[in-house]
Amino acid sequence: MAARGGRLRRSDRLRSSKDFQRVRRDGVRRSSRHFVMLVAPAGALAPAGTPRLGVTVSRKVGNAVTRNRVKRGIREWFRSRSSALEGDVVVIARRGAGQLTSDEARRELSGLAR
Question: What is the extent of the structural domain holding 86?
């Protein structure tokens, strides 16, 4: 279960490059105009039944303030949906994601998670 409020717990995040590569290699890819979502079965070291999140937001999305706002929105969406998600999830923000409102981003991410 993801932490309430503030930061995601360490166990709720994908942190290593190997985890990101595994999700990219083994995951199912879903994309929309502003996001790409990769979903893969949980890694061997992941706690059973606990979804983990990895976020990638490049400089193409905007300046540091914009990128951080996008990442916070993705993490908030993950916290609200983590009970319905399984495995490891990587969300990649595309150009233009920084111009979305939080509701638009949430709707787009929820559409990808189905």
Answer: 10-113
